[in-house]
């Protein structure tokens, strides 16, 4: 069986489980369940702390894992990112008390508190900065107030938590992170099953990004209409019983669907419908 690590809690857990469910895999119903065997799909899921997943995969104990890019890089494990999943986006940034330091090059001799000591240490070294790095598990925004550090490096989504703590974001982002599928570096075992797993997840990503659009249009306007809905390769165009009309079907990006429907209507299209896509293979 393909052995896959899945986050058991945190911001990665529910979106990962939802994606796997949409991809046709069984998922646990009880959060206390640590291992789930999906016999039909020949997959064994292990529910682990997101921070530990890269370690297990890097050691070759598990074939694949779903985790954050930040956690992967911070672990130093012998694992690599093989697919982006598009959820749990975040940015690792420096922050400090306003009016103190404004750039990483000013950190020499200071102490930086973070939950991502590996990533931050590497970033400081890249910039030739000699600063101490203190590892903390969570709530690093209080480190400055308590005198543990002069600067923190923390995951930022909106920045509200840092502002509420009286801190200001400084410098360029350290790392842009999101959910990813990882694999042991250089591993080629279970290749066919790995490719099938990735195809399923890719199918979910496509299904989320597109809708299927159907509409009727007069035959003399078909070329103008399909210019608005080119699809992936080409739209499907079928003649209707009324010889002056054709039916068109095409995949359209979700974010463009309402605008395209308006433009098709103005062109003369009628019976314009959109339907969700539940799965796809491209």
UniProtKB/TrEMBL annotation:
<keyword id="KW-0808">Transferase</keyword>
<comment type="pathway">
    <text>Amino-acid biosynthesis; L-histidine biosynthesis; L-histidine from 5-phospho-alpha-D-ribose 1-diphosphate: step 1/9.</text>
</comment>
<keyword id="KW-0963">Cytoplasm</keyword>
<comment type="similarity">
    <text>Belongs to the ATP phosphoribosyltransferase family. Long subfamily.</text>
</comment>
<dbReference type="Pfam" id="PF01634">
    <property type="entry name" value="HisG"/>
</dbReference>
<dbReference type="GO" id="GO:0005524">
    <property type="term" value="F:ATP binding"/>
</dbReference>
<protein>
    <recommendedName>
        <fullName>ATP phosphoribosyltransferase</fullName>
        <ecNumber>2.4.2.17</ecNumber>
    </recommendedName>
</protein>
<comment type="function">
    <text>Catalyzes the condensation of ATP and 5-phosphoribose 1-diphosphate to form N'-(5'-phosphoribosyl)-ATP (PR-ATP). Has a crucial role in the pathway because the rate of histidine biosynthesis seems to be controlled primarily by regulation of HisG enzymatic activity.</text>
</comment>
<keyword id="KW-0547">Nucleotide-binding</keyword>
<feature type="domain" description="Histidine biosynthesis HisG C-terminal">
    <location>
        <begin position="207"/>
        <end position="278"/>
    </location>
</feature>
<dbReference type="InterPro" id="IPR015867">
    <property type="entry name" value="N-reg_PII/ATP_PRibTrfase_C"/>
</dbReference>
<dbReference type="Pfam" id="PF08029">
    <property type="entry name" value="HisG_C"/>
</dbReference>
<dbReference type="InterPro" id="IPR001348">
    <property type="entry name" value="ATP_PRibTrfase_HisG"/>
</dbReference>
<keyword id="KW-0368">Histidine biosynthesis</keyword>
<dbReference type="GO" id="GO:0000105">
    <property type="term" value="P:L-histidine biosynthetic process"/>
</dbReference>
<dbReference type="InterPro" id="IPR013820">
    <property type="entry name" value="ATP_PRibTrfase_cat"/>
</dbReference>
<feature type="domain" description="ATP phosphoribosyltransferase catalytic">
    <location>
        <begin position="49"/>
        <end position="203"/>
    </location>
</feature>
<dbReference type="InterPro" id="IPR020621">
    <property type="entry name" value="ATP-PRT_HisG_long"/>
</dbReference>
<keyword id="KW-0067">ATP-binding</keyword>
<keyword id="KW-0328">Glycosyltransferase</keyword>
<dbReference type="GO" id="GO:0003879">
    <property type="term" value="F:ATP phosphoribosyltransferase activity"/>
</dbReference>
<dbReference type="GO" id="GO:0005737">
    <property type="term" value="C:cytoplasm"/>
</dbReference>
<keyword id="KW-0479">Metal-binding</keyword>
<keyword id="KW-0028">Amino-acid biosynthesis</keyword>
<dbReference type="InterPro" id="IPR013115">
    <property type="entry name" value="HisG_C"/>
</dbReference>
<dbReference type="InterPro" id="IPR011322">
    <property type="entry name" value="N-reg_PII-like_a/b"/>
</dbReference>
<keyword id="KW-0460">Magnesium</keyword>
<dbReference type="InterPro" id="IPR018198">
    <property type="entry name" value="ATP_PRibTrfase_CS"/>
</dbReference>
<dbReference type="GO" id="GO:0000287">
    <property type="term" value="F:magnesium ion binding"/>
</dbReference>
């Amino acid at each position: 069986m393909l052995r896959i690590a899945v986050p058991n809690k945190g911001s990665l857990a529910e979106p990962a489980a939802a994606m796997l469910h949409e991809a046709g895999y069984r998922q646990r119903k009880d959060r206390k369940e640590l291992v789930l065997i999906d016999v039909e799909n020949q997959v064994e899921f292990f529910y682990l702390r997101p921070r530990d997943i890269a370690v297990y995969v890097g050691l070759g104990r598990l074939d694949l894992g779903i985790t954050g890019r930040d956690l992967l890089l911070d672990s130093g494990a012998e694992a690599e990112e093989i697919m982006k999943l598009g959820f749990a986006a975040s940015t690792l940034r420096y922050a400090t008390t306003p009016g103190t330091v404004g750039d990483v090059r000013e950190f020499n001799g200071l102490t930086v508190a973070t939950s991502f000591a590996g990533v931050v240490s590497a970033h400081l070294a890249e910039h030739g900065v000699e600063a101490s790095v203190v590892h903390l598990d969570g709530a690093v925004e209080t480190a400055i107030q308590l005198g543990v550090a002069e600067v923190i490096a923390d995951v930022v989504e909106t920045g509200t938590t840092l502002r509420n703590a009286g801190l200001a974001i400084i410098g360029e982002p350290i790392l842009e992170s999101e959910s990813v599928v990882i694999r042991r570096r250089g591993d080629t075992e279970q290749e066919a099953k790995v490719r099938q797993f990735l195809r399923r997840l890719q199918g979910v990503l496509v299904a989320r990004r597109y809708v299927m659009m159907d509409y009727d249009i007069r035959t003399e306007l078909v070329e103008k209409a399909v210019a608005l809905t080119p699809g992936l390769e080409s739209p499907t165009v079928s003649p209707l019983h009324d010889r002056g009309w054709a039916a068109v079907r095409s995949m359209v990006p979700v974010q463009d669907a309402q605008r395209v429907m308006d433009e098709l209507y103005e062109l003369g299209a009628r019976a314009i419908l959109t339907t969700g896509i539940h799965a796809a293979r491209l």
